[in-house]
Amino acid sequence: MRTTAALLIGTSVIAFSVPAYAAQTGQAAQAQTANQGLAQGSGDDIIVTATKRASRVQDVPFSINAQTEKDIQRANAQTFEDISRNVAGLTVQNQGPGQSQVSIRGVSAGEIVRDQPGVKEQVGTYLDESVISLSLFTPDLDLVDLNRVETLRGPQGTLFGSGSVGGTIRYITNQPKLDVVEGSVEAGVNTIKGGSMGWDAKAAFNVPFANTAALRVVGYNTHFGGFIDSVGPFSKKNVNDGNRYGTRVSILWQPAPQIKITPRVVYQKVTAGGFNREDHYILYDNEFTSGAGGDDLGERKQYLKRREHFSDKTLLTDLTASYDFGPVELTSVSSKMIRKILVSRDASALTGSVSVSPFLSIFPGLDPAIVNLTSNLRDTTHLNQFTQELRLSSTGAGPFQWVFGGFYSDAHRTYHQRLPTPGYDAFIDAATAPGVSASQDNGFGLVDNPYHADLPYKDTQKALFGEASYKFGQFKATAGGRWYDFKEERRFHSGGIFSDLSDTTNRTKSNGFNPRGIVSWEPDRSLSVNLQVAKGFRLGGVNDPLNVPLCTGSDISTFGGFQTYKDETLWNYEAGFKYSKHGITFNAAAFYADIKNLQVTVTAGSCSSRIVFNVPKAHSKGLEAEFSAHPLPGLDLSLAGSLLSSKFDSTLIGGTPPAVIGGIRDGNRLPVVPKYQFAATANYEQPFSATGHWFVNGSVQTIGSRFTQPGDQEAGAGNVNLIYFDPVTEAYGTSTQDFGSLKLPAYTMVHASLGVRWTSGLEIDAYVKNLFDSNPKLSLDRERGLRARIGYNIAQPRTIGLTVRQSFGGAPAVALPPPPPPPPPPPATQTCADGSVIAVDATCPAPPPPPPPPPPSAAPERG
């Protein structure tokens, strides 16, 4: 913490002590950069690298969105979720800090629960050239000093590999620059309705040196205010506050024009004191308990017996090097990522519900007081991953373009789960016999830990990829593919009285080929029409064994026969067009994704286990469009939206008697996916002086209804066999109640901002997010399949904030038209009517009198 604070202070000193020469360095370069910055509002001028080469958004032959640095600042975005609502077809399911799950175009298998480390992601995530995605825990990166965030829709298995079955997200940072001293510092403060204060301090600077190198350093520290209050034994206001701080340091060394070498170090730590969960029912606090009887639960409240915690430390080191041979460029990308993640939850309701049912019937002499013990579920993940990509690509502007390369990754990941519950062993041994709890430890050497498991993984991936395009006249054909070879080894070692005492090693492997073909028609620079067929995949795996001691007989017969699950594959068929002219940009696409062996997670009844099933057939189809216009000087309008229909095309039957498993029924909706999503934004900006502008911005975002898991849409899904325990009277039991629909309702959020900026680089921005203080339900949070707890992860309430940003060097913050030339000075002389020239303060001579009129002539006599 002190190191980060020192970095921020030092950066600020540098920013404000840079000599005046920095603001004047490279005037021509400043003007060029300023023009590029102004053009960022126009979609056809945004440069992206979605095809592993630089090109305009409008020239990329598939559907892509790029949110620029300007867009991010206008939205006052703090997280990727803030960005996602403005991007058509992009959905984020919030499951707490650092655990949000992303889906694109409705390709979703639903919620991946916290203790499913073997399930792979459906959307790949990259920081520049380095892959950073990890199922469950893709880093929640700070958005400072980003050039843009690219959303590549549809399977990207050709160039980006596994994990990109639905699409790819790319955070593109600003790179070191050799020719300019530039940077920025910013500070912000905000207050949350009914919550606590938040603040942030961020800085970035770029310094060239030795004519062949440049250093770019970013530092940030953000405190997120809390807005959830806890009741119960652990009572605290704003329990879910948190912090995020980190740095990015990169160096560009360019010893020759054709050689570029960029090493970089990225470090970030995110912590949170709790989760944004709103409890509606929990084992200890409900209508069956004494005292408040559940009345102390309500909006933005949760019940806790102990504090919860989240921590994520991420260290990424990478090296990108390129050599331009002329017609060909060689690029190497090496990266190493080390992460340590802890999710610490209050699992008292989980452990207590097991103690009510089935343990109070299995162990008749068990003291009911065991249900009231405090329990802590601790999930830890340690990742050490190395990746290497090497590729060759063509350069120049000829009709034939190509890229070819290879990729290798080696990841070692260890997942630990512990359930420390002080006093638990004594209760079990008293009801059975001394040493019974210790006999269930299975070699871990733990006490008072009714469940514990170690799952070390070793994953290796090899791939060859290539893509080429040829342009002939108004048409361009693109074809490519990726050959991949995956291997995974996992050991599952568990112990404790809840577990089945497993110690097994499983291996899975897969190889195959993912092709892509695109045909484009471009009659002129402003219009293109694209047709695409592409394949994507997601690696399969091995399910964890059921926690047999907790299962009923029907649960074992339904869920016990599924050990492995296959690769998920997808064929995407897409048609789209892109138009940009006269300040109007309109991009749209229609698609149909045919999904095979969709990997869907189902809660295994009362077992407190999760099982992944392959659904033979499913599909997602829809329309997406993004429109922007500049109808008046200073006015920018944009609209983005998508209509989706994602459904199962198969029914999964199992159990005795046979029944539909987990809501996987032909015609049911895929979870997480809204049927519609729209966002409209307006920004108006005008000068108030020769050196400054004022601006106002507003946005409206609407998200349709969704389901968290497939079974939530089944008839009677809200009719739950609840478990309860009164801590005061020690009364316990079960009760069936109907909570109604488990559908997550549609919601709308409105944001607005007002600010001023000057050519000196100073900007002041006041904003309000969630203006009307809506309380949307983002995902359903459950314990033991709704039996022990029913809650919802919710969005942040109305937040009012102020950001002050100072940029220096580089391009001016506001590019204003040149002032009109001054009026010419008054003349020193004047010219009189008679043609004479005299002093301006002299009097011209009076004009001579006009000559008298001629006398009239005598009229002629008449004859």
From TrEMBL:
Swiss-Prot/TrEMBL keywords: Cell outer membrane, Ion transport, Iron, Iron transport, Membrane, Receptor, Signal, TonB box, Transmembrane, Transmembrane beta strand, Transport
InterPro entries with a match to the protein in the record: Beta-barrel_TonB, Beta-barrel_TonB_sf, Plug_dom, TonB-dep_rcpt-like
Record-annotated TonB-dependent receptor-like beta-barrel domain positions: 295-771
Biased composition annotated in UniProt, kind: Pro residues: 815-828, 845-863
Membrane-related topology note: Multi-pass membrane protein
Keyword tRNA-binding found: no
Keyword Membrane: yes
Source taxon at top rank: Bacteria
Coarse class of the protein's main subcellular location: membrane
Signal peptide, first to last residue: 1-22
TonB-dependent receptor plug domain location: 57-168
Positions of the UniProt region annotated as Disordered: 811-863
Location in the cell: Cell outer membrane
PROSITE patterns reported for this sequence: TONB_DEPENDENT_REC_3
Family statement: Belongs to the TonB-dependent receptor family.
Entry protein name: TonB-dependent receptor
Organism: Sphingomonas limnosediminicola
